[in-house]
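Troubleshooting: if your tokenizer reports a length mismatch, compare your output against this known-good record of 86 residues.
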Amino acid sequence: MIEVIEYDPPWLTARVRGRKTQAKIYDEPSRFGIDNGRITKLHVSRAGVETMGLDDACYNYDRGGDIDLSDPVVPEIIRELEAWRP
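Known-good structure output:
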């Protein structure tokens, strides 16, 4: 479930599976997106962390993976965000 904190297209700040996330989500897939999908930027904070700095991330994608600590919840978050529509 996605709990929207703020939506200012194409930016979405939300809580997904208990993690604070910030994503840039477009209506159409992009070659810059995660697996050529709609999400071109994504920050997922570690469990229990409410800040959005790189030091607080368990995953960060900015037209390519920057931080990936193999948190098992990240693929589920990506699937939920890909399916999300305002």
